[in-house]
Amino acid sequence: MRNIYIYTTPNANKDGIIKIGDASDVEKRIKEQLNTASSFQQDSLEYTLLYQTKAIKEDGTPFRDHEIHAILEYKGYPRRKITKDNQVLKSSTEWFEVDVEKVIHLIEQFKAGKKQEEIQIERFQDFPMRPEQLDAVNRSKTFLSQKKAPGETLEMLWNAKMRFGKTFTAYQLARSMSWTKVLVLTYKPAVEDAWKKDLEHHIDFKDYVFLRGDTLLEINDYLDKSISVVAFASYQDLLGDNGEGGIKARHEVLFNTHWDAVIIDEFHYGAGTKKAKEMMAEQIAIESDSEPSDKQLEQAKKEFYAEEDDKLAEEKETEAIVEVVEKAIISDSRLYLSGTPFKAIANAQFPQEAIYNWTYTDEQKAKEQWALENAQTPEENPYLSLPQIQMYLYKVSNDLIQA
User: Fold this and answer.
1) Cα–Cα distance between 357 and 159 in angstroms, integer?
2) Which residues, other chains included, contact 307 with Cβ-Cβ below 8 Å and sequence gap of 6+?
3) Is the N or the C terminus of the chain less surrounded, counting Cβ atoms within 10 Å?
4) What is the tens place of the pLDDT at every residue in 144-175?
């Protein structure tokens, strides 16, 4: 029995290339390929198997890898040629520059019996919002739609736990509010991929295009064609210059556009002080030894100071983005996304009606409540894939509380 498989190698992964093949013994076949020119500039036997499934359709019909290759080419993903020193070593390969998620979905649809014309790989996700996500959208829409003074910008904060789905839900809010010009800013460039994939893979966001880097120059071109835009920029992008002290050309449009909304992702503020950290370090050292040495105290403090330095760095970068947004970016609304906006809440930066909270406790309650109300269909629980959380309490010293 043959299997369809997908793998990549260290060199191929750098270029976003994946290999799609079939074999009875997948591991043996891949190792054979890694010793040939078809291994795509591979200089070792290292590889990562990304996917494997039986090459049989649901009706029992077997199929081969070339049928999957043909559909990819039909969808506009040509085979990647293998070259060396500008010479073509192999013009027809099984390597493709395409997201592995798209190929997996293609294979699943093909196995289900769909023809290549029916198979959708650009936008294949169609899951709905969970109840709390819909609630966040509805509450935010109510607040952000209220009448405001000329030039006023309304602000909303989502204080939501990890895996709430802030990216997906923020896009749903944009869609609900009919925002056509959305700017996403963050000090963590690594989140770009998540923002891009959520927008480009879900059918609900087919009217939007994702722009970043040099493509930011095309913002007005898309808007002129009535195509909605999500522009993405990092802290480094926003505050970088052109080498002469001015704004980079591709970022000028960010400051010259009147945005429907600016979304500030990873809106984290540090939650601690040097004094509190020092007391906590001393407490831990004391608990480990009734008479802690100076060396133990110093080590404990260093560990906590290092953690706080990271938090303070995040706070500084976040504040820098917010300052630029408030002073130089024009928008009708701002949405702040965070899992730990402690200082913003403590300082009453947002009125209560402008804060949507969703905690781990809220999620666990919703998960259990859904199971009780839908006992006949437990497999449909929208929280099923989310982890079970075990919570433990600990006593904090009075010195720390009074700090």
Assistant:
1) 5
2) 277
3) N
4) 999 888 888 999 999 998 889 999 999 999 99
